[in-house]
Amino acid sequence: MKKKMIMMLLAMITLMVYPVSAFAAEGPATLDLQIGLDTAFVFLAFILVFVMQAGFAMLEAGSVRMKNAGHVAGKTVLTLAIASLCFWALGFGLGFGNGNNFFGTTGFFYGGDTTASSFESLAFSDVTLNVKFLFQMAFAAVSLAIVSGGMAERAKLSVYIIFGILFSVVIYPVVAHWVWGGGWLGSLGMQDYAGSTVVHLTGATAAVVATILLKPRLGKFNKEGKPVIIPGHNQVFTVLGVIILWFGWFGFNPGSGLTPMGGFFGHVALTTNLAAAAGGLAALIASWLYFGKSDIPAMLNGVLAALVAITGACAFVVPWAAILIGFVAGAFTFMTSQWLERAGLDDPIYAFSVHGIAGMWGAVSTGLFATEELAAETGVGQAGLFYGGGFHQLGVQILGVAGTFVFVAVMSFIILYVMKLVMGLRVTEEEELMGLDISEHGTYGYPEQMKLITDSESKTSK
Fold first, then answer.
1. pLDDT for 200-220, tens place per residue?
2. Buried b (16+ CB within 10 A) or exposed e, 339-351
3. What distance in Å separates the CA atoms of residue 34 and residue 130, rounded to the nearest whole number?
4. Distance CA 267, CA 276 (A)
5. Using CA atoms, how far apart are residues 349 and 153, in angstroms rounded to an integer?
6. Cβ-contact 400, 185 below 8 angstroms
7. What's 155's DSSP letter?
8. What whole-number distance in Å separates Cα of residue 274 and Cα of residue 184?
9. What is the pTM (predicted TM-score) of this model?
10. How far is Cα 210 from Cα 218, in angstroms, rounded to an integer?
């Protein structure tokens, strides 16, 4: 019995490792096997990207104060619910449906594999459409999760729900269509393999607009306007969150090829990992030079910033360039986060520096370091400036960054400003002081610990 099980396991591994082209005979059975393997590969990638939401929950909950931890963590589940339903109803059609250069006009209220003719932009892969939908929906959820960080500790839950719905319908899918769904940026040859621009810059731009309109948290700046450190309540949570996100990125980037055939996903995984490692070290060194101490949150943000930057470039650059891209992203993110905070921006998890500025750098770096061979391998764009491609690809990348930033910023501002006039964006001062756990949900994420704190404060006031 054990021998049979071992043989079956070896057979399964063999099928996953060796490409279908190795089979001598070609026919329907071989094609079905390739479709099955591609679909299983993308479904596994979807699971990894889906699990990234657990990383966001740990990272964001650990980065805020104890009185808001339950609220912030719970919003991650809400993010998945909003993204799933909105992407099914309208987002998938607007993003990947057949249409014009700006948005799709078919495939609304997604009906399953039988509606494949409505999604010509995804016809390059034989993966079943249901799994393609799940994979792309997980990307939309990641982009929305970034928005959550910019609203942390002072936005009404109702505001996040309404904005999340509109973001998932009229903002994210439009940018996705521009680059991946047959839109104008894709037609120009913009290189964004897994979403430095589409996913991260889009979410970060919406987040920074929300951050500006919400204004800083109470006590974040003193009377002289200098920033006051408000440490997160659990650094262990943030470390675990980043490890989970790093792990999930191996679905995010390698999975974007939609096939394991040929093994190209291994190159993507390699550049992804090298960049992340370089980014973490760069940010740690930068914090050491700046503070005189090695700052753990800075290192964590450096890892994430490098992952964001390499997300768009991972399939187009060689390993040494990936290390350089990650290193620059980690160091630059630390510096910009400090500068933006001194300028008066209260971004609790540094969403714009980590996902926005690093996303911009990721897009621009592709226009610098993309090689001719890898551009040909992916069939997207051409070589970057440093590999003989001239300024064309770099110009396309900069245009994509600028177009995305302006569109998302304007749309987010209009939506949030109207909401501010109609219903208000921020909880009351009293609710903010007591914490969103109790004011929005009626209970604390740490009820026993918070009871001890409130009892102590009550005795002190007497």
1. 999 999 999 999 999 999 999
2. ebbeeebbbbbbb
3. 17
4. 14
5. 11
6. yes
7. B
8. 32
9. 0.92
10. 16
